[in-house]
Design a protein that fits this description.
This protein is mostly helical. It is 74% helix and 0% strand. The chain is built from 6 helices and no strands.
Amino acid sequence: MKEVDPSSAEINRDALFPRVNNLEWVRLIFALQVVITHTLNHLDPSLSIPACIANFPGVPAFFFVSGFLIYASYLNAPGTRFLENRFLRLFPALFVVTLGGVVIIFMALGWDIFWIITLFSLFGLCLKLLLDKPIIQSCFAQSV
């Protein structure tokens, strides 16, 4: 039997893993199971959730399918193109969430505390870069 190299140009990438599939829907079902179970437990812990929903391993199944889809994405665009695609997919959301967190800290604690936290964080980053050691480990390291 002939081995197929996924990085070779002469193979059909759709034959490896088709882009059109129903795994996103399966992942949605797993995510909804987790949301429903947690919501019902938090709203009314005395509520009886059916065993087929409560005992289903939604989180491991979600991560299993997600890992499979990420690998399939790598097969469709290997190498640096895969890394570029992942970066462009994840970084905008990370930027928005970080900016939102900064705004929430500013609104909750005020401008003075915001600057104190920012300066402390920058000071810690400078120490980390200058000492080339993790700050927490260097603070709690025992002297010999």
